[in-house]
Amino acid sequence: MNFKEIQDLIKLINKTNLTEFKVKDGEFNLSIKKGDDDKAIVVQQPVMQYPSAQVPVQPNFQAAAPAAPSTPEAPDQDSAPASAEKTDTSNYLEVRSPIVGTFYRSSSPENPPFAKVGDTIAKGDVVCIVEAMKLFNEIESEVSGTIVQVMVEDAQPIEYDQVLFLVDPA
User: For residue 95, is it within any domain?
Assistant: First the structure.
């Protein structure tokens, strides 16, 4: 039943001496009660039930906390290549994501990637696809040059302004 049909039904019941009216149409239930003391209209529609999201829980959270202080060497090791990488990549241009979504290197698993390491690209060339809200957006390069590094794995979530490719303009 739609809203107009329910309104017409209420008007019709108000013109009669009925005090209670119930109708069931599939999963749609409508119950109307009227009286001098109380007026109540109850409309029930089927409730959509979705499976609850299951969040993985780290079973031994307390044991993981002491491990953080014992690994200061790991960040230093990661920092050293990152700083070396920064100095090495200072002459490279970056192709960044204009939107949040899921990064895809090709239009389908069977097709080759739009751009891979060693490819020469020009400004306006499609370098990847970013899926956002079930829409597949072709991402065009804003720079020209040779792709030196792909910064994101295929089918990984990406953020706005995240670096996707490093390009050597030479």
Answer: yes
Say if pTM beats, i.e. exceeds, 0.70: no
What six digits make up the tokens of 84? 């070396």
Is residue 67 helix, strand or coil? helix
Helix, strand, coil % in the chain, rounded to nearest 5: 20, 30, 45
The sign one gets for the Cα dihedral 60, 62, 66, 72 is: positive
Domains of the chain: total = 2
pLDDT digits (tens), the chain, 170 positions: 677 777 787 777 778 887 787 877 777 777 777 765 545 555 555 555 545 455 454 444 444 444 444 444 444 443 334 444 444 667 899 999 999 999 999 999 999 999 999 999 999 999 999 999 999 999 999 999 999 999 999 999 999 999 999 999 98
| C-beta of residue 156 within 8 angstroms of C-beta of residue 103 | yes
